[in-house]
Structure formats: structure tokens, C-alpha cells
Write a structure and sequence with these properties.
308 residues, alpha/beta, Rossmann fold, 2 domains, five-stranded parallel β-sheet, 40% helix, globular, disordered N terminus
Length: 308
């Protein structure tokens, strides 16, 4: 134990010394000023969305650690794991001697951030409440870790796809939807969540009008509201279809016209990830809610990713 404490302190002091010799001060997505050593050579990610973004930025060789839940791309599973998103192992993080730890306000606890800061380990926080903010967050992260050129390419591509989607849907009425976060008990999402904005970008609008991020809703209320579409998200279409099949004959669900008419949309669960694959899922959903907008292809050339 004593040896570990010595190693713990030496690692923290080394990080602090480097930060003082050559560093930049940046404002993260949460509004905190963070002093980050330059160049950034060793990164620890505390969220799957952060890990995905780091790989997209081509900085995976500098990613020395991530969480147990970081599984995309597949190579992320081979990185040294530092525990869960909610309760990462501080000893593991310190042992990796990161120049910066990149966290997500949506998943990580402030107690983790404060503990790392007390050890003089810089923690850069990511956070986005809208799709445009996701794009901005990717660009900012690219600047922090020294991947500006690749970041500019990613951001330009994502923005072009978002603009193209807006053009296609600009005259289309929004489709009212029930997005199923959890089936039993029934949980959906509030209007101020990042997920709600992603659905709006796809031409939908949640029938759940709640200030809570993840409200429990009653099936009786949904029957009164009669959403035009029910949306299930899953890592693959077969699982999403199985979810829908499980409710077709259930009380309440069978009273929804969307269920009776098979107006169900299956979207990849990356729609809830503030990372580059988000646009794949938004486009996938838009094509199901507004197939007429994609019946005639635009003459403009817009680069797209692979729809999950």
C-alpha cells in the first residue's frame, strides 16, 4: 500500500510538472477552464462516446485507457480498462500517467472529476444538448488533443449531412412519435434532452411533453395522444423488431393506431451517442419517418457514413 501511495503521488507530480512547462488553457463544454499539457501524448477516456470520437480523430494510438463499456470500434476493447463510467478506478487512471482525461458530463460523476483534479490530472469535460453542439464538441476536442486537421474533416462532413437533411425535410410536417427508452415500465425522453433534438433533426417530435430527462409515462396517456410512430432503438434491427413484436398484442399497446398500422421505426442505438456515428442513426430514422423526402435523390454529392 505504501509503495502504491508513493507511485500515486509521483505520477500526479509528474503530470503537474509537465502541465506547468508546456500547456494551453482551454474552456471545456461544461464551462470549466482546464490546463492541458502540449502535445497530448497519453489520453484516458471515461465514456464510450469519447472513445469513439478519439478513434474517428485518428488519435487511437495515444489512447492509453478507456472504460469497460467502450466497445466501438472493436479495437477499443483491447485498451487498458479503468473500470465503469460511473465509478472508474482512480488507481488505474493514475498508473497510466495521462496528459489528459476526457470525461462526459452526461455519464461521469463530478466526484470523479474533482478527485482527479486534486491529483493534478487535467480533466476535459464534453457535453452537448443538441446535434449542432455535438459537432462543435468534436471540433473542440480535436483542438485540445492536437487533431485539428482530422477534426475539421469530420466536422465538415457531419455539417454537410445535417444541412442536406434539413433541406430535404424543411417542408415536411413533423411526425409525432413515442420514443421507447424502456418498455416496462414505459420510459421515454423529455423535450430538453440531446435525444429529443436528434429526433427533431430526423423530422420527428416526441408526444411526451416533460421537463424531466427520462420520464415514466402511462400507456393511458399515450393512447390519448396517439403518436403517429413508435420508435425502438437497438444495436441491431432484429432486436428492435423483436421488441416491437413483444408489444403488438399487449393491453394498451394494441390500442395505439401506430402499433396496429405497423408504423414502427427501428433505429440504431447510436442515436443517443454524442459521437460521429450519430448522423448515421439520424439519417436512418429520417428515411423511415419521411420516405418521401428520399424518393428523389439530390443532385448534390453528400458524403455519408454507413447506416448501422
Amino acid at each position: 500500500m505504501r509503495a502504491f501511495i508513493v507511485m500515486f503521488c509521483l505520477a500526479a507530480l509528474a503530470t503537474s510538472a509537465r502541465a506547468q512547462t508546456n500547456s494551453i488553457t482551454v474552456t471545456d463544454d461544461v464551462g470549466r477552464e482546464v490546463r492541458v499539457p502540449q502535445p497530448v501524448l497519453r489520453i484516458v477516456s471515461l465514456a464510450p462516446s469519447v472513445t469513439e470520437t478519439i478513434y474517428a480523430l485518428g488519435a487511437q494510438d495515444r489512447l492509453v485507457g478507456d472504460t469497460d463499456f467502450c466497445d466501438f470500434p472493436a479495437d477499443a476493447r483491447q485498451k487498458t480498462h479503468v473500470g465503469s463510467v460511473m465509478a472508474p478506478n482512480l488507481e488505474e487512471i493514475v498508473a497510466l500517467k495521462p496528459d489528459v482525461v476526457i470525461a462526459s458530463k452526461a455519464g461521469n460523476r463530478i466526484e470523479t472529476v474533482r478527485a482527479l483534479e486534486s491529483l493534478h490530472i487535467p480533466v476535459y469535460g464534453t457535453y452537448a444538448k443538441t446535434v449542432p453542439e455535438v459537432i462543435q464538441s468534436i471540433q473542440k476536442m480535436a483542438g485540445v488533443i492536437g487533431a485539428t486537421e482530422q477534426g475539421d474533416k469530420i466536422v465538415a462532413g457531419l455539417q454537410a449531412r445535417l444541412d442536406d437533411l434539413h433541406r430535404r425535410l424543411q417542408n415536411a410536417p413533423r411526425v409525432s412519435v413515442l420514443f421507447v427508452v424502456w418498455r416496462d415500465p414505459l420510459i421515454s425522453m423529455g423535450q430538453q434532452t440531446f435525444l429529443a433534438d436528434a429526433i427533431r433533426a430526423a423530422g420527428g417530435e416526441s408526444v411526451v411533453n416533460s421537463e424531466q430527462d427520462w420520464p415514466h409515462v402511462s400507456m393511458e396517456e399515450m393512447v390519448k395522444l396517439q403518436p403517429e410512430y413508435v420508435i425502438f432503438s437497438s444495436e441491431d434491427r432484429a432486436r428492435g423488431e423483436a421488441e416491437f413484436a413483444a408489444v403488438v398484442n399487449e393491453a394498451g399497446w394494441r390500442d395505439l393506431r401506430a402499433v396496429r398500422d405497423r408504423h414502427v421505426a427501428i433505429v440504431n442505438d447510436t442515436i443517443s451517442y454524442p459521437a460521429p456515428r450519430l448522423m448515421d442513426a439520424i439519417e436512418q430514422l429520417a428515411r423511415q419517418l419521411h420516405p418521401e423526402a428520399f424518393a428523389v435523390q439530390s443532385n448534390s454529392s453528400v458524403t455519408r457514413g454507413v447506416t448501422p
